[in-house]
Specification:
The structure is a homodimer. Chain A has about 325 residues and is an alpha/beta fold. Chain A has 2 domains: about 45-255, P-loop containing nucleotide triphosphate hydrolases (Rossmann fold), CATH 3.40.50; about 265-315. In chain A, about 50% of the residues lie in helices and about 15% in strands. The first copy, chain A, has 12 helices and 8 strands. In chain A, strands 1, 2, 3, 4, 5, 6, 7 and 8 form an 8-stranded mixed beta sheet that branches. Chain A is globular. At the A-B interface, helix 3, strand 2, helix 6, helix 7 and helix 10 of A face helix 3, strand 2, helix 6, helix 7 and helix 10 of B.
């Protein structure tokens, strides 16, 4: 397939222009057409690097851990893009993460790029935007992307399709929590990180998790690894990265992975079709008298919403 | 419009058969076709009663408050259906609300019906199911439906389109919280309930909220009311119900309300079309070779997901 010449913006991103990258991310976050065009153009340059998702409850030290992970990767010559996903909530009235400085930015190191993302409402939209920002970072030449999410159920579920390796960060003294973890976290964790392992109980926590992990491998054949880390007297960081790399190597060799990649892309395409259909229909509801009459009938309880929707899906409908 | 004879199940629900109602709710929750058929049939019987959403952080006493509100309504001869929406979370490993008995069921009173709903993942799906269950309750003859949600941002946002009156439940000593509340909660609250008002600080909390409320009425012209309640030495419950009724009366008289009802129905119809389109497309991805080739090209990075989706939305596409 012949490719058109790259646009100025795409060329700038690819050659490492950080301002062009930041601008593109803003466009993607806000859903601007410029972001869309760039993602189309840069898509061939994506899909090869590890996208590591780090998730876990508030207060387990994810940000410090990411700081150390970034330092470790830099000392091994790898460039790192960090995306902190910060779901806004009506109850927190804005940013869960707030204004605290979340990462030692090392502004003078071009091998690190940090971006915090916030989005109200649509958790699906946040996942899409995160995936797209990770693609921009890859196109910009970063070797690894780390995605940090706060452990609020809905967002994590939405984000889980974005990462290639998912790390769940916990702290010692899980106690009863380990029992409840069974139901949900094992499905999403490729690596467990017991952080603050200098606290008493770290060994027990590790043992408990190992016991759970031994209950059986995930459907794809990978058995979750468990790593102990500390960020106060830093330890375990190289081991954490090794566990992540082991999972990435497993993926590369796994036939299940190809199927999973296909499934994710299908999901993305279906999602885009769904949103585009909804967008067009919402537009027509404003302007098309036949559609307005259909809604009138639903309002008058002459027709139910299910039947109305069916008529709109049926090919060749005229909003009868 | 001529209506067919009601089905046996619909007739049973309408005449007050509680087992038929419970069965229908289960069908709706699980997305079974039987639930769909019932909702189509019963739709003309819906859209008239107050659907009161009560939301707020964990631990503010929503369940006790609902118990007392139900008792108040019963003593006034009103029947009440209660829906407790219980988002499952990967981190809680299941039910946030857990197994604790959440409502004094008064199993011997046919004027009360309680149902707890849980759903993993899709918050949109949970809102749809809640709206549909409220419709079943209305068709079954209940005078009021109360919907309780736990204050986790995403779910509240999703649920907010379901309730006709939204009550946000808080406790004294809001402190800094009041500031952060500004951003999010005022948009969704028609009534503020300061519960545990026997605790010190209740007056201050009420004053702070009143000050915020005075900053201006909502877009529809309603100014949020503030009510103090206690559930230990019960007080304020009639006042809480009066505030809810005042909002319902406001809605009935408000021209903005008709527009809002239309907007919600349009949203529901668009949502159903979107999901149906996605369902059909996902099916075709399994079976249609042209579509499989399209995905192959996206996997090979020859085509980007946006362009692929566009081709699928375009009328008359063949999955080129």
């Amino acid at each position: 397939m012949s490719r058109p010449r790259p646009s100025t913006a795409a060329a700038a991103i690819v050659r490492g222009d950080r301002r062009a990258l930041a601008k593109a991310i803003t466009a993607v976050e806000s859903g601007a057409p410029a972001g869309d065009a760039l993602l189309r153009e840069l898509y061939p340059r994506t899909g090869r690097i590890p996208i590591v998702g780090l998730t876990g409850p508030l207060g387990v030290g994810k940000s410090s851990l990411i700081n150390l992970l970034v330092a470790h990767l830099r000392s091994n010559g790898r460039s790192v893009g960090v995306v902190a996903v910060d779901p806004s909530s009506p109850f927190s009235g804005g940013s869960v993460l707030g204004d605290r400085i979340r990462l030692d930015r090392r502004a003078d190191d071009p091998g690190i790029f940090f971006r915090s993302m916030a989005s109200r409402g649509a958790s699906g939209g946040l996942a899409d935007a995160t995936r797209d920002v990770a693609r921009l970072l890859e196109a910009a030449g970063f070797d690894v992307v780390l995605v940090e999410t706060v452990g609020s159920g809905q967002v994590d579920v939405a984000i889980r399709g974005v990462a290639t390796t998912r790390v769940v960060v916990l702290v010692p003294h899980l106690g009863d929590e380990v029992q409840t973890l069974k139901a949900g976290l094992f499905e999403i964790a490729d690596v467990f990180c017991v952080n603050k392992s200098d606290l008493p109980g770290a060994e027990t926590a590790e043992r408990d998790l190992a016991e759970l992990a031994s209950l059986g491998p995930a459907p794809d054949g990978w058995r979750a690894r468990i790593v102990r880390t500390s960020t106060t007297a830093p330890s375990g960081i190289p081991q954490l990265w090794s566990a992540i790399e082991a999972h990435e190597a497993f993926l590369a060799a796994s036939p299940a992975h190809a199927a999973e990649r296909r499934r994710r892309l299908e999901e993305e395409i279906v999602g885009r079709v769904r949103e585009e259909v909804a967008r067009r229909l919402a537009e027509r509801l404003e302007t098309d008298p036949a559609l307005r009459r259909l809604v009138d009938r639903v309002l008058a309880r002459e027709l139910d919403p299910r039947t109305a929707a069916e008529r709109l899906v049926a090919p060749g409908h005229r909003g009868r």
